[in-house]
Amino acid sequence: MKPKCVVTVNGKSVTDAFLRRLSECEVVDRDGVTSDSVRLRLDDDPPAEIPQPGARIEVSLGYEGSVVSMGSYLAEEIEVECLPYGITITGKAAEMSGPAKEMRRRHWDDASLSDIIATIASDIGVAPAVDAALGAFRYEWLGQMAESNVAFLERLAERHGALFSIKAGRLVFSKRGSGLSATGKPLTGLVITPDRLVTGSCRVTFSTRSKYRTVKASWMDRATGRKRSVTVQGDEDSDAEFEIGQPFSNRDEAKAAAKAKAGSLGRKKLEFSASLLGDPSIRAGAPCQFSGVRTGLDGVPLLIEEAMHRFSKSGGYTTDISGSIKE
């Protein structure tokens, strides 16, 4: 099958001349808080008109007869190279601009996480989709102190061991590893077999650097004025304790943060990367596992944290993935 890349700019298909100059297209899909991105590399000999930042770029990848939309992006940076001539256009996910980046100063009293996410989603102009268990958590008081909506959501996600994404008109706030797409539907799991791997690209790293037996978080007891702490279980094979330096408002917040940190540390004990034959259905956040690749790795539950789709005239179409063990 012949790889194919389809590009539209401001809703219009690009010209044949543009496609002839397009030497490489790279789309990076990241799990959760980090904005997805696109990079277009153009041959610029003879020099053409320099494009301007701000254009809306839509990319579809796949093969002749079947391409899949990879999202909508806003061109943020144009880099022009001279002698030899080239142009690189870099863009970020369209939904992560505008209201999502605005600085806010406000607070909530006795509000559920669902209520807080709904308010932010309304600001951005998208629909909220919040995991029911996460959304039920209530804050006595929570402040957004001169933070952008994105930075504030990132802080909340880290505190609750969650992920958020703003895609396809929705603000999704879900448990890490839930395997849900931006529409709230389950992502297709990936089985990595030897025939899908690019030779020499598969790497799996086991590490003890992030092993901690317990994780401790503290809060200030308003009734007594004393600092108190809560401890959650981590990796039983370690004797070390990890302590979160930031104090929290109450025991529930401290415990939620400690559990999230324990999960984050646990994921780092196994990390992987691999390059596959191009597959536009592969998405960050999807579960995956090896099959028939190696004893000791086959069947281990993994989670894709980043999927980089790369189309080039010289190298065809590949999908590079990386991630960690699934909780």
Plain-language structure description:
With 327 residues, the protein is an alpha+beta fold. The chain has four domains: 3-93, no CATH class; 103-175, Baseplate protein-like domains (Phage tail protein beta-alpha-beta fold); 190-207 and 270-325, Bacteriophage T4, Gp27, baseplate hub, domain 3 (Elongation Factor Tu (Ef-tu), domain 3); 214-265, no CATH class. Helix content is 16%, strand content 47%. The protein has helices at residues 16-21, 113-124, 132-135, 149-160, 251-267, and strands at residues 3-9, 12-13, 22-30, 37-43, 56-63, 66-81, 86-93, 103-112, 127-130, 138-148, 162-167, 170-175, 190-192, 203-206, 214-221, 226-233, 241-243, 270-277, 287-290, 302-312, 316-325. Strands 1, 2, 3, 4, 5, 6, 7, 13, 14, 18, 19, 20 and 21 form a 13-stranded mixed sheet that branches. Strands 9-12-11 form a three-stranded mixed sheet. 30% of the residues are buried.
Topology (elements, then pairings):
Elements: E1 3-9, E2 12-13, H1 16-21, E3 22-30, E4 37-43, E5 56-63, E6 66-81, E7 86-93, E8 103-112, H2 113-124, E9 127-130, H3 132-135, E10 138-148, H4 149-160, E11 162-167, E12 170-175, E13 190-192, E14 203-206, E15 214-221, E16 226-233, E17 241-243, H5 251-267, E18 270-277, E19 287-290, E20 302-312, E21 316-325
Parallel strand pairs: 9-12, 13-19, 15-17
Antiparallel strand pairs: 1-2, 1-5, 3-4, 3-20, 4-7, 5-6, 6-7, 8-10, 11-12, 14-18, 15-16, 18-21, 19-20, 20-21
Task: Summarize it.
This protein is 16% helix and 47% strand. The protein has 5 helices and 21 strands.
